[in-house]
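ok trying this again, last paste got cut off
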Amino acid sequence: MKIIIAGAGDVGFHLAKLLSFESQDIYLVDQDTERLDYASNHIDVITRKGDATSIKLLKELNIQDADIFLAVTESQNTNFTIAVLAKKLGAKKTIARISSHEFVQSTEIDFQEIGIDSMISPGELAADEIKMLLNQSAFNDTIQFENGTLNILGSTLEYNSPLINLTVKEARERFSDVEFITIAIKPENSDETIIPRGKTIYRANDQIYFSTPRESIKKLYKLMGKTQFGVKDVMILGGSKIGVKAARNLCDNKFKIKLIEIDKERAKEVAEKIPNALVIKGDGRNVELLEEENIAGMDAFVAVTGNSETNIMSCLVAKSKGVKKTIALVENMDYINISQAIGVDTLINKKLLAASAIFKHVRKGEVLKLANLHNVDAEVLEFRVKEGSPVTKKIVRDIQLTKKAVFGGVIRNGVAHMTFGDFQIMAGDKAVVFCLPEAIHKVEKLFN
């Protein structure tokens, strides 16, 4: 498969990195020599310096042979232009990264007619992610399949958890009334992601990821040593597009929202857009202002200004004032894996969310959904199981699944099932798999 990526920034680089594990023909185009040098020194891709809006350059890249063209520069207008050009010049599928959610929601224009097969809005994805995280308040990571029929939930293991010092096998035997599969463990103060086996031991402060049906979520709180709490009052710092979209989403779901915006004109504009939210003009870095606005009475604090450090520091202030749930938007993708260490519940990165959303479109097999977990460099994929695919021919324990992946369950006829050793996956199932990036291509072969 030949894939051309226009834009070697964070989104383009992350996509190229994921795809490079699979021996694809990846071409990375950018005008920044430094970015291209970094990419060629770290991943196996072909780099080309130049302007991707150049028809001459696209022809030199033999665009007509491209299976997928990804337009992920930092300019929405540039992405629109090059996606349309690539399609007209023969690229089979084009995907454009955009900044305006208006285009994603538009039903008046058929963008496929002008040459754009799919559009991804990082801001829209980030706002949706915030809503989902607040709906599962005690967990710092959550992914839902079929509106919560099956869930991936992640959180740190508290000292009072009954799982402490048990092996995965012992925990499953002792708590057989709770349906769950432990799909990943990230030990405290470690960058390593462990795909657990039966002898893997749970330790306090480990970041643990479970898959579980909706019916077992309440019981899972107890196993984690967590207390379930509802989120109603939310303070949002930053009237950016993400802040506005998140506030609107949450107001529609009956959350009580206070939004703080430093710019007077922007604050006025936001107040007109979201009449159900209380919009305050002020500097959210000012602790006195936060105290005046009763930050201690908030259930959650979400910081989405354009400054990562401001977002992190204000979340730490909120945490010190007793706010149970904090979420910070960060621009630097390297920050994503340190949320446990610094004390913010969840760090989200819109570029990483966009890369994962785009990555779904280039998968082999029928991938229904792809998502990334915030604290680990890994992917969660949902496949529709085809008739006759290798995964249907043996029970789970006899399937030769790489040690860098684990089945997280299946949804069959609207019901979630845990994929323990004697389970048989069947055609028509929607199967969830957790795997490290380098194992994705091996997992895909089971579903082809």
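PB: full thing came through this time. The CA atoms of residues 186 and 193 lie 5 Å apart.
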